[in-house]
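Sample intake sheet
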Amino acid sequence: MKRLILSLIIASIVISTKAQKLNVAAAANLKYVLEEIKTEYIKLHPKAKINLVYGSSGTLVQQIMNGAGFDLFMSADNEFPLKLKNKELTTGVISTYAFGKLVVYSTSLNVDKKGLEVLTESSVKKIAIANPETATYGTRTVELLKKMKLYDVLKQKIVLGENIAQTAQFAFTGNAELGFIALSLALAPDMAEKGNHFIIPENLYSPIEQSCVLIKTAVINTEAIRFKQYILSAATKGIWEKFGYSVQKN
């Protein structure tokens, strides 16, 4: 009996320890905002160990389907989490944590003053967008360009980034005169200091409803549950808005 009790205690300790390690698969547009949220969270939970892995939502979904060891998926939309749910790879509900915004960014052109008119200027040789096959912001960019009847005109100038962070890098380094990126990246200190951006009217593309969901694991990860709750709480509202996101809180 004593051995049984000791075994249960040890098992409980092991589960508790595992719960302190959290692997988060996060859309690349979250690179800066999520680091700040993580910092604030650890102030409240000093023992928490959170590993943030960034990439395009589609690529991360594929990794999860292939058995990558993630506990929480933070997507750039609500469609990719649904794919995982349909494969029975998630647990709990899919929750919207923020609404993203699309911008056009440049270090060499005054897009903040000219807006989308800059797209047809002869000085524009390359336009960077995220791969629409795997990245939500890329999908919305293609939608926008087609709605403006500019996609066929500009498609020869388009260069694809693997994700929105790489797309931002193309524009930041001048490898592309223009980049369609997330507002959250355009507001990052280095990006904002070197370039300027124009916020695209949200009626020109489908809403970027960013959602998260817990990944089904062999052992319930209590840290993942707690971190997700924190992300959705009013405590993070100011951080989201600081990086240009819209947040709907109860």
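Comment: Strands lie at 21-27, 49-55, 72-74, 90-100, 102-106, 127-130, 158-161, 178-182, 196-199, 208-215. The chain is about 40% helix and 25% strand.
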